[in-house]
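Students often ask why we bother encoding 3D structure as a string. The short answer is that it lets us treat folding as translation between two languages. Here is a chain of 491 residues written in the first language.
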Amino acid sequence: MSEITQWSLHRLREALRKKEVSAVEVARAHVDAVGKAGALNAVTTPTPERAIEMAEQSDKRLAGGEGGALEGIPLGVKDMFCTEGVASTACSNILEGFTPPYESDVTERLWQAGACLLGKLNCDEFAMGSSTETGSSGAVCNPWRGNGDARLTAGGSSGGSAAAVAARLMPVSLGTDTGGSVRQPAAFTGTVGLKPSYGRCSRYGIISYASSLDQAGILARSVTDSAILLGTIAGHDSRDSTSADIEVPDYESELKGGISKMRVGIPKEYSVDGMPGEIDDLWKQAAGWLEEQGAEIIEVSLPHTRHALPAYYIIAPAEASSNLARYDGIQYGKRAKANGVDELYGRTRAEGFGVEVKRRILMGSYVLSAGYYDAYYLKAQRVRALVARDFDNVFEKVDVLLAPTTPSAAFALGEKTDDVLALYLGDIFTVPVNLAGLPAISVPAKLNGEGLPLGMQLIGRRFDEATLLRAAKAVEDSAGFDAVPQAWWSP
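And here it is in the second language, the structure alphabet:
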């Protein structure tokens, strides 16, 4: 494995600016790493030629004393983002062969900043899943195996994005987070997963799952790298009506502020029955780390948290059933052979969608149907408002919240395939954040007794990512997590 692929984003940026290494050398090293990691199945559409071409242009700009914030930095993008001229399928058969003629806002900002595309990354179909096993490209394998040899999930739905960063195939990557799809994979793979506030980044060009919940997210090796990337992709976009027209701080500079006198809330409702004792112990230890650095620890209550998960699994499928109605075999993507329009619709959707997507479309259609809309969907929206109000009340007393990211470490691939409820319950700590539109981050904190990563989650006020990142940096500094998975996948 090349030394270059071990470097973080900020180390690569420094080396490129000092001309210690060329952008082409950096790109070739990462292209080679991607090529040797087929066993992980993290990259569905490699773009080696494009990466080298973009790196050549970066070298020209760097030679002229120019260059953007990410000049020459190679990265990958979850297959939920539309990338002009590169297949974008949401890992679904129904979008087989779809190549967008336009670029998403977030990826457009990356290329303008000088980043180089290594490829599109594997995910659950239409980002619907918690283990990256539902997509048409097959399951992603976690680079971590712990003390055993079992093939483990990298989490979902941004499993490919997390696995690629953990395996040192790329320094950073893009994911999306609808109910924890960046933070949960980050916790399972020993990486940093940042979900910005809803509206902080444009959703233009992101293939929709649940429009009021979806948000672009970041997978990285450090909080600093997350801050650098967020500063690039955040900003107002007139093409997205939910994009917030507010100033984007210099997040990297904001990290230097420290956490003295910061108030950190410990939500008691996040202590659930059945959670392993080592996660509860780590939670207490992380609170102690923050207290040692000058923070004040305050126990708080979010009484409606227990209703968040069922509300989410009404709202998200309802929005999905509406969003996915556009895939009918007429406009783009797969078209089944059929006689007549009705048969075309039915066969195309039956052949194109996977089991989990069909399940959520049916759930969503049911709760939106006549006679059930008031009983389910409207009630879920009321619960959502109560969950958001709980957070508003708590943030009058504290600056950030500290909680576990997941109720367990990574589990074996196939272990929960037939137990849908168990998979859904894995999102219990992450879903409330999306319902309230808040920013949150998962930071790797330690390895458990089986040698697998565990993450801690911090939650911040809406659009106050700067404070959130400072708190995350404090946890990161105290944890000193520097474990790397053994490269069993590389020949």
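Translate back mentally: The radius of gyration is 21 Å. Keep this in mind for the problem set.
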